[in-house]
Fold this sequence. Notes:
The chain is α+β, with helices and mostly antiparallel strands.
Amino acid sequence: MKRLLFQTAIIFLFAFSAIIAQTQPIYKMIGKNCSEVKKVYGKPKKHDSSNKLMECVFYKNKLSRMVFVGNESGVYQAEMNKSFSSKKKAENFFEEYLINCEKDGFKKDSVDVYEYDFKKPGTSVNINMFHNKIKKKYEVGVKARRSS
């Protein structure tokens, strides 16, 4: 019985940490090193460190893609695209991301109804939502960059 409880607790811990990692905004990785990215998001689909001046970490699953690009100073660019089967689900994710940016101290500048730029010292973020007619899905794209 104790063993079963222990195994259940371990499975729950792994599942919970995976959920937290998936909800961690990519802009929080700007300035951190690529090993920190791997601690937060887990094992990448691909890790390219063939160029000594640049390191790329790629994640991909059925619904999302993420790329982190960095150097010895840390991650300087991060991008994410996430697909949704309905417009409502995409809007909910989009709005939650907007709220999180504002909570984290970013200043908002609206570009369009479904596109926003955010800035705070050291980081700029662009968030947009669009209908991908080829895939017949709605997508939310996030681009974060180190800024001066």
